[in-house]
TrEMBL record, chain A:
Residues 77-291 form the ABC transmembrane type-1 domain. It is a multi-pass membrane protein. This is Carbohydrate ABC transporter membrane protein 1, CUT1 family. Keywords: Cell membrane, Membrane, Transmembrane, Transmembrane helix, Transport. It is found in: Cell membrane. It comes from Pelagirhabdus alkalitolerans. GO terms for biological process: transmembrane transport. It holds the Pfam family BPD_transp_1. One of its GO terms (cellular component) is plasma membrane. It comes from the Bacteria. Belongs to the binding-protein-dependent transport system permease family. The chain crosses the membrane at residues 21-47, 81-103, 115-136, 167-187, 222-245, 265-294.
TrEMBL record, chain B:
The lineage of its organism: Bacteria, Bacillati, Bacillota, Bacilli, Bacillales. It comes from Pelagirhabdus alkalitolerans. The keyword Signal applies. It comes from the Bacteria. Keywords: Signal. Residues 29-46 have a biased composition (Acidic residues). SUPFAM superfamilies: Periplasmic binding protein-like II. This is Carbohydrate ABC transporter substrate-binding protein, CUT1 family.
């Protein structure tokens, strides 16, 4: 009796549901520990004053009041967006073109180029710091300043002036991520049937027309994915400004994540760091929502056409 | 053909990884300063094969691995796992472990100014007095030892390893080119005050076109370290505005920049290290532990020499060895650090890597007094340093010492590019107030 009752509860459906939940549980368990808990904890922390050692003291909205009265925080938001735009927009266009070139049959040694374009992504960040430190050096002997001097341009203090700092960091972002996006575009392009191109060629379409009328429409989802990840990635930009500017993180180049990192680990004020993290969280959520709405719109219009 | 290219790209990859591994090995000396936050490399070395393993976090070029080999030979039950990282990383990681209550090593090296960050965390460290440090109090200079204690003197965080008395390193070739006698005595007499320093800077610049130093920051540091009070008083109140010494240091550097007598190369950058060999400037005002860097970067003997700093020495850097509470073997860890910071071992650390002893007993040792460094033209460097060490006046630094220092360095950097020193000073003060208000 007992056994049959148990069996009647553990139907075939339930059994496979449990198995399925078990299979996906590792992600949720790990996410709860390393994702959800820290997130909730930083919400909690943002209402406290805490130096990491002494007991926390509740101080209401003071942390938010502080960061919203701090001009450097506004600079950090502004920097994040400017560097994000400078770094990702050209990057997406260029990686699309490179992927198209690598996918076409006109180029020799394609595999070699595919490997090489991905190299920056896996290069040690220490090496990147040294190389870019020499290229964008404040001194007249820096590489970028040397090139400028050939055109009679005065030496620029790359690590200190308003636009040059952003340009230098955006270049690092561009250099490091262009290969990654190229590979993703390339994967998407390889799933486009060759017949489409062949038919287009027979109809006399130029390469530009092929790119515009076949590749781009067929890649819509991939492009959306790349824009999505690049947006979030650029809002979370941290390593590049830190290695380029050092722990001082000048106002001209500090990003939101660098700002909150500095609050937490250099100044040991975890409350204001958490408050800044919450603000960033809200910004990312908003942008993601806009992104989603836009991509839904595009998806719907596509269905209507077909 | 494509196989060849694959091979080439593989080799490129391998090279990149190799450079990545080497990145951390030539890091700066015992009390490395800011700007190296980018270096995520840690080198780990396990020495000995005893049952008790002690994890030891250190930074800089200490040369402790050789001393540890001696130690494990005498104590076969001990193994020491020596992990060397960038200075800021060691302190950040230690702070995180202390805050979280797990992850700390058995022994952690803490820099002199950074020890303030851990003052409130007595329960995260072993009180070395409980482990027997009472008996070695006399081994160390009083002021150095007291900085490792809590305010009431009941709790001892760490045993001091070395100190950083500041001296003037100078290039004999540049001094000679400018027509000066380049012996340490003559240079010491020539540059007794900061006014002399500026006058000589002008003369060298007129004669040779060379700079007095390539990093104006170091001139500021030198005068900062001579100040009897720096950024905070003992109650952690910011005093740089009412207290003139730091402002004087700042104005002095501003003046040198204005007359283009010093350069603005940032410390710890590849170009700064490379400059040590170039001979484009005359002096470097720096602590004892900088000599390892100079020797590594400018290998030719007899070019660099050492003399006293104008208007007396200060102290920049030096470290302590602490035993975090989490350690499962506090007695063994303590026994090891007591050995490592004992006078005999401090002597070896000085002879090997120029770590200046925190133990005055070493100053009396004949090997120390008679040590003549061929690199620095065969002069008795130890005597120059100990003369400097005796002039050091201990200064309270405060928990936010480095963040405040960083903002002033930014101001100095801006004025080196021609910005108005007064405006930059005000802007730095505002940023500092922002930090304190958090």
């Amino acid at each position: 009796m007992e056994a049959t009752k148990k069996n009647s509860w553990l139907t075939e459906n339930r059994r496979s549901a449990i198995a399925a939940y078990l299979f996906i549980s590792p992600f949720f368990i790990l996410f709860a520990i390393f994702g959800l808990f820290p997130m909730l904890f930083s919400f909690y922390l943002s209402f406290f004053r805490w130096d990491g050692l002494d007991p926390m003291t509740f101080n209401g909205l003071d942390n938010f009041r502080f960061i919203f009265s701090d001009p450097i925080f506004y600079s950090s938001i502004q920097n994040t967006f400017i560097i994000g735009l400078l770094g990702t927009l050209p990057q997406i266009v260029v990686s699309l073109l490179i992927a198209f070139a690598l996918n076409s049959s006109l180029i020799r040694f394609r595999n070699t180029f595919r490997t090489l374009i991905f190299l920056p992504y896996i290069t040690s960040i220490v090496a990147v710091a040294i190389i870019f430190g020499l290229v964008f050096n404040n001194q007249p002997f820096g590489f970028a300043n040397y090139i400028l001097s050939l055109f009679d341009g005065g030496p620029i203090r790359w690590a200190a002036e308003y636009w040059p700092v952003k340009f230098a960091i955006a270049t690092m972002v561009f250099w490091r991520w262009v290969g990654y996006n190229t590979i993703i575009f390339l994967a998407g392009m390889q799933s486009i049937p060759r017949e489409l191109y062949e038919a287009a060629k027979i109809d006399g379409a130029s390469i530009g027309q092929q790119l515009r009328l076949i590749t781009l429409p067929m890649l819509k989802r991939i492009v959306m994915f790349v824009v999505f990840t690049a947006t979030i990635g650029s809002l979370q930009l941290f390593t590049e400004p830190l290695i380029f500017l050092g722990r001082g993180l000048r106002e001209e180049g500090i990003t939101v994540v660098a700002y909150l990192w500095r609050d937490a680990f250099v100044y040991n004020t975890f409350g204001t760091a958490s408050a800044a993290a919450i603000v960033l969280f809200v910004i990312i959520i908003t942008l993601t929502a806009i992104n989603l709405a836009l991509s839904n719109l595009i998806g719907r219009s596509k269905r209507r056409v077909s | 053909m494509s196989k060849l290219f694959k091979f080439v790209s593989f080799m490129l990859l391998a090279m990149l990884f190799l450079t990545a591994c080497n990145g951390g090995s030539d890091d700066s000396a015992a009390a490395d300063d800011e700007e190296n936050g980018e270096d995520p490399e840690t080198t780990t070395e396990t020495i000995g094969d005893g049952e008790i393993e002690l994890v030891f976090w250190e930074f800089g070029n200490t040369g402790y691995d050789r001393l540890i080999e001696e130690y494990v030979e005498e104590n076969p039950n001990i193994t020491i796992n020596l992990q060397n990282s960038d200075m800021n990383d060691v302190h950040d990681n230690l702070f995180t472990s202390v805050s979280a209550g797990s992850g700390a090593p058995d022994i952690a090296m803490v820099e002199e100014a950074q020890i303030e960050r851990y003052r409130n965390a007595e329960d995260a460290f072993n009180n070395l007095y409980d482990l027997g440090a009472e008996s070695v109090v006399d081994n160390y200079l009083d002021w150095v030892f007291q900085n490792g204690e809590s305010a009431d003197g009941d709790f001892l965080f760490g045993l001091p390893t070395d100190i950083g008395p500041t001296v003037m390193f100078y290039r004999t070739d540049v001094f000679e080119e400018a027509g000066f006698d380049s012996s340490p005595e003559a240079v010491s007499e020539l540059i007794e005050t900061w006014e002399d320093y500026e006058a000589v800077a002008r003369e060298i610049n007129d004669e040779t076109g060379k700079l007095m130093t390539d990093a104006g920051e170091l001139v500021f540091n030198a005068r900062r370290d001579q100040a009897t009070q720096q950024y905070f008083d003992e109650d952690d109140e910011l005093i740089i505005d009412e207290h003139p010494q730091i402002r004087e240091a700042y104005d002095y550097v501003a003046n040198l920049f204005e007359d283009e007598l010093v350069g603005d190369i940032p410390l710890w950058t590849p170009e700064w290290f490379a400059g040590m060999e170039e001979g484009t400037y005359a002096t470097m005002l720096a602590p004892a532990w900088m000599q390892g860097q100079i020797k590594d970067n400018s290998p030719e003997e007899g070019i660099w020499s050492i003399t006293t700093m104008p208007e007396g020495a200060g102290n920049w850097g030096g470290s302590y060895l602490t035993v975090p509470e989490e350690s499962e073997h506090p007695e063994e860890a303590y026994a090891f650090i007591e050995w490592l910071t004992a006078p005999e071992q401090q002597l070896e650390a000085f002879l090997g890597y120029g770590l200046f002893p925190s133990s005055p007993q070493v100053y009396e040792m004949p090997e120390f007094m008679d040590y003549e460094d061929d690199y620095f033209g065969g002069i008795a460097t130890a005597q120059v340093f100990s003369e400097a060490a005796q002039q050091v006046i201990p200064v309270y630094k405060g928990r936010l010492y480095y963040p405040v220092d960083e903002e002033l360095k930014q101001a100095i950097d801006n004025m080196s590019a021609g910005d108005d020193p007064d405006d930059e000073w005000e802007a730095a003060l505002q940023r500092i107030e922002g930090i304190l208000r958090r």
